[in-house]
Amino acid sequence: MKSRLIAAWRGLAIAAAVLLPLAGQAAETSGDGLTLGPADSRNVLVVHASNSVQVFRGVLEDFSRLNPSVRLEYTEISTQDLYAQAVARAWQAPGARTGPDIVISSAMDLQTKLVNDGYALPHVSPQTQALPRWANWRDEVFSIGTDPIVMVYNTDRLPAARAPRTRRELLSLLQAPDQPLAGSISTYDVQGSGIGYLAATQDTRLDSMAGALLAAFGRNRVAMHASTEHALDQLERGQTTLAYNLLESYTRHRIARGAPLAIVYPQDYTLMLSRSAIIPRQAPRPDLGAQFLDYLLSPRGQQMVQEQSGMRPVNASVIAAAGVRPVGLGVGLLVYLDPLKKKHFLDLWRAAVQAPAAGPAGAPATGGPGPGGALD
Fold first, then answer.
1. Which residues are 75's β-sheet partners?
2. Could you name the Gene Ontology cellular component terms for this entry (predicted)?
């Protein structure tokens, strides 16, 4: 009884902390970033991440409450740019302490490549050692939370009884005589999105009908979304009916706000991708990067990750009965980053989704990323 009361009080304390303002601290918000903590602090933690500021803000604010003397500078950057900037810094100023102290990305393959190529520092702590084996590779890249990759549809445009529950059912719907998804389906632009490329290549690895599904996308004039948020904007406005390969966490935020959307966890298999973190080798304050990482992996941090960002805690990411299993960190993720394999995959992908159709209306709609690439 006493232990249950203590647990209840701890839960209430965390909930109260979330609701309290950051007393005595400045919070500065920009379109792609957030700054918390005293402006004159000597302890400046720089975080670069692909996580949306809107989705991740509650986690950042909780860390700032626990560490009021630390100035936290958070910048939202695309997965491709996170990778490219890390490589560029190493080439341009190999001995300099510059850039972020921790990098968090949903493109776990690109994070793994940074580790494999020597751009990350190791970190060992009780929190990292408690991770499942699939969530920690070489003590240099770590899962901080997982996100199922799902299908999402607009409930005003597609009856639940007709919504596909597997990829085979989706293929059948794309081939239906009444063409309910023609010009009304979207998926990631894998040329500009790191997480889109990862999800698409995992589909190719796991699903023998991935090629047929991609060809059906092309025949139905698939639209290319730059990010999950972009896809959800289109779905919510009724510009599309169904989106393939979206992050669950962002979708749940929209549904909680009343958007007419429903999530489908494909019953054949549901990919569970990690938001993974590394401490860059050139980090000016790797100690603060490690402190933030240990917070994210702590029981409190994992609770906040779940409650505030909608991601799943790392130790609760295996749902075997539902066919949901996490994709593990490791060298297996590097296969499709081989330049020749990547070129071959992208050539096939372009040929499929840009299949010729009659007249200008047959060209695939695009909403692809700008020069900077796509976010989550």
1. 33, 48
2. outer membrane-bounded periplasmic space
Residue reference for tokens 């990411």: 317
Q: What does residue 96 show for φ and ψ, rounded to 5 degrees?
A: -85, 145
Q: How far is Cα 235 from Cα 221, in angstroms, rounded to an integer?
A: 16
- DSSP letters spanning 122-145: ----HHHHTS-GGGEETTTEEEEE
Instruction: Please state whether beta strands 242-247 and 223-225 pair in parallel, antiparallel, or not at all (unpaired).
Output: unpaired
Picking from 102, 74, 18, 28, the residue whose alpha carbon sits closest to that of residue 305 is: 18
What is the per-residue pLDDT across 251-286, written as a single tens digit (0 to 9) for each? 988 999 999 999 999 999 999 999 999 999 999 999
Helix (H) or strand (E) holding 374: none
Dist CA 373 CA 230 (whole Å): 13
- Check whether 328 has a pLDDT greater than 70: yes
> Domains of the chain: which residue ranges?
28-146+274-332, 148-272+336-354
Q: Torsions phi, psi of 273, nearest 5?
A: -95, 155
Q: Cβ of 152: how many Cβ atoms within 10 Å?
A: 28
Residue 369: is its pLDDT beyond 70?
Answer: no
Residues facing residue 325 across a β-bridge: 271
> How far apart (Å, rounded) are the C-alpha atoms in residues 213 and 199?
14
Residue with tokens 């950057």: 77
> In which residue are the tokens 């010009």 written?
183
In tens, the pLDDT along 64-109 reads 999 999 999 999 998 889 999 999 999 998 889 999 999 999 899 9
Give the span between the Cα atoms of 263 and 256, in whole angstroms. 12
Tell the CATH topology of 28-146+274-332.
D-Maltodextrin-Binding Protein; domain 2 (3.40.190)
Tokens coding 270? 């549901």
pTM, two decimal places = 0.81
